Amino acid sequence: MTPSLDHLRRCTVAADLGAARTRIYLRQTGLIVDEPSIVAVNIRNGSLIAVGTPAERMHGRTPASIRVVKPINGGTVVDIEMAQRMLRAMVGSKLRRALRRKPMLRVAACVPHDADPLARRAAYETLIGLGARRVELVDSLLSAGIGAGLPVERPEAAMIIQCGATRTQVAVLSLGAIVAAENVPVGGDTVDRALVQHLRNHHELLLPSQAVRPLHVSLCESDRDRAEVHGRDVATGMARTVVVDPQSLRLAVRTPLTSLLDAIRSVLHRCPPDLVADLADRGIVLTGGAAELPGLDATIRESTGMPVRISDSPGRCAILGLGAMMEGRLHPSDAPPPVDLEVTAPMPGHDREPGEEPAHEERPARGRRRLRLRDRGPRGDAGGRPERDDADPRADEPSPV
């Protein structure tokens, strides 16, 4: 077991800070928070008015004195202070008091595969501000694969597509590591914007943000030949209802998915032939909140010719997988040699407990010679005295005069 995974098993709380939803997992308890990552703020005094689902209902319906903000975008914390206030409100005072009793609170958090140091630092500072003494950052592709039940630790290929609100990650996993991965700025919000833009350009209709999701029902029903959409007329500003063809909506949704299909081909092209042969039988697994977009699995299946399935509770795969790793419920494969899962190393300077001595290999050599004590036992020829390490060839050289 690698030290980083060993440290991960000492964590008490797991967090998945997503652009659409924030999820928090408590050891031996389960999922305790699953709320939209959105906050309503009074711009006059800066006080919080609503957090989570109540704030989401206010989106697009607030007066000038109230502003609805999203402190997380694309899996990256863009407003650390607001994200901390949002998490405090979601967790609640009772749980915060219980966590304060832990002097060495450890938190595990998911980060995107291609997160830059600034994004990783933002997630780290957000959780440190909540009272965490140590933060373990884990690749969200690995945790989502574990949460989806994929055998990521075995010597066989497992392909996962994590569909988020603002980005989609495509990866092939094998032996607890990522063989090839690709990130595209296409997600559930991108599809919603494509629908809104289509109705504006072809029907001169402005669609409110709360009316986009019902259109997905029209996309799911292939035998439906018409759908009514309510919105505001672009020219007059009055309420208007138009009848649209669901097939035209499907074509509008298919356009932004082109970059996703290109990313899938790129990942498969970079994989070894043996792994691609495994995927021909096992197929692709979709995770993430946007995995249930209408027609997404059929589009990928038609483009790749591979079986595609949506995991159970796709939006919660990442946090449930991280919770399983934290609780030690992940069993290694039977294939020799055992390979431990890759876990992102902690932030520099925070890889030890306060007062904890560094490991032996971290200590700098204080002299030209290193001493190695013999094992305890009967005195040998050397009389139990320390013997010199043969690693230094200069140990037997005569001293200069």
Automatic annotation (TrEMBL):
GO terms for molecular function: ATP binding. It holds the Pfam family MreB_Mbl. One of its GO terms (biological process) is regulation of cell shape. Residues 349-365, 374-401 have a biased composition (Basic and acidic residues). It comes from the Bacteria. InterPro entries: ATPase_NBD, MreB, MreB_MamK-like. It is found in: Cytoplasm. Keywords: ATP-binding, Cell shape, Cytoplasm, Nucleotide-binding. GO terms for cellular component: cytoplasm. Residues 328-401 are annotated as: Disordered. Forms membrane-associated dynamic filaments that are essential for cell shape determination. Acts by regulating cell wall synthesis and cell elongation, and thus cell shape. A feedback loop between cell geometry and MreB localization may maintain elongated cell shape by targeting cell wall growth to regions of negative cell wall curvature. Belongs to the FtsA/MreB family. Forms polymers. HAMAP family: MreB. This is Cell shape-determining protein MreB. It comes from Streptomyces alkaliphilus.
